[in-house]
Specification:
75 residues; two-stranded antiparallel sheet; 5 strands; 19% helix; DUF3107; ATP-binding protein
């Protein structure tokens, strides 16, 4: 699953592939924002951790990763 995090004053969003379910990611994000201070911490499929101050989170987009087409395909 793909998670995009928009960070205030950053020119690009953070994108990571997570092995967690959309409900788990939503719960983690909601809990971090509800606390008001602290950090939002997510781990990607390769074990890398992304930590963002909650006060700087602009948005979080949670989406199922679409399979990428390989080669020449007709749609």
């Amino acid at each position: 699953m793909e998670v995009k995090i928009g960070v205030q004053y950053a020119p690009r969003e953070l994108v990571l592939e997570s092995g967690q379910s959309p409900a788990e990611v939503e719960r983690i994000v909601t809990d971090a924002i509800a606390k008001g201070e602290g950090t939002l911490s997510l781990t990607d499929e390769k074990g890398r951790r992304v930590v963002v101050p909650v006060t700087k989170v602009a948005y979080v987009e949670i989406a199922e990763a679409a399979p990428r087409a390989v080669g020449f395909t007709v749609r």
